[in-house]
Automatic annotation (TrEMBL):
Its EC number is 1.21.98.1. PROSITE patterns: RADICAL_SAM (PS51918). It comes from the Bacteria. This is Cyclic dehypoxanthine futalosine synthase. It catalyses: dehypoxanthine futalosine + S-adenosyl-L-methionine = cyclic dehypoxanthinylfutalosinate + 5'-deoxyadenosine + L-methionine + H(+).
Amino acid sequence: MSIDAILQKALDGERLTVEDAVALYESDEVEKMGEAADVIMKRWHPEPVTTFVIGRNVNYTNVCDTYCRFCAFYRAPGSNEGYVLEDEEIFKKIQETVDVGGTEILMQGGTNPNLPFTYYTDLLKKIKERFDITMHSFSPAEIWKMVEVSGLSLEEVLHELKNAGLDSLPGGGAEILDDRTRKKISRLKGSWTEWIECMKTAKKVGLHSTATMVIGFGETFEERAMHLKRVRDAQDEADCFLAFISWTFQPDNTNMKAEKTTPREYLKNVAISRLFLDNIANFQSSWVTMGPEVGKKSLHYGCNDFGSTMMEENVVSAAGTTHKVNTNLTLRLIREAGKIPAQRNTKYEILHTFHDEETAEKDFIMQN
């Protein structure tokens, strides 16, 4: 089937197959894919609005026994460079977020074998006693570590976390949902089925999540296509994902050598994902890895959301990629893309639309 025929199939509302996705990955007709993805995006979101959330990434620990080859952030248990943030330090970071109108805390860390399960539930309770903020925290790898240290079932762990104050799960750790690639890049992280099981179980106990994808590990086009199929199947079954975010592997300072994926390949992946994932409403741009200009361009390749202003981000930064964006710059970039910026919450509900040249009441500088 020709690329034009595959794109027309998507535009006609037919589901793309794995073979269709592979054919798109093999093609260099990226602009055509972008145009089709933009049409599909506008069916979900007819208004020319691009949303963003004011949030902060709090990396509460860098101690990790998963040893992913592509990660420059983690330190092994026992390392004198390992840390666990004091509660007061976490509260301070959350207060700073609240002070600038932030609504979301993306709390993630390593799979730290030294932390008991009560560490997480007690911390969540203390946060919720002090702050009215959405805890969008703990990726599936961290959740499975909690299962291991607690002896509880996956469902019990997620239920306890929700009761303690967890609101939703970020989609980190999906990388490529294929076990050949997973074994190559992160032998101890768990299978793709465990990642999916965590997200479906989270929905069962009343938590939403997001789905992610990282390209550039040397995965095949078939593996990329199967990743999208597995996300789409899970969404069909459980309606667990509020959004989809893809980005590219950043090889600097890691134990994996690889060519950096080009902006064009990233935009192609964004477009194919939008065309294939016909059951997920929101697609986030990844300006953190790709930079603001490419992030802006992705708003015409299927993305309707600019992600988080992310006051703090240590994992991608550790790999030598640091693109800092503050709220007013976010507004400007969205406007330069021909869109109207709007602040949202974690559930993609719009809190404030910024018309004309209105700026954020409070500007802030993102910190390392």
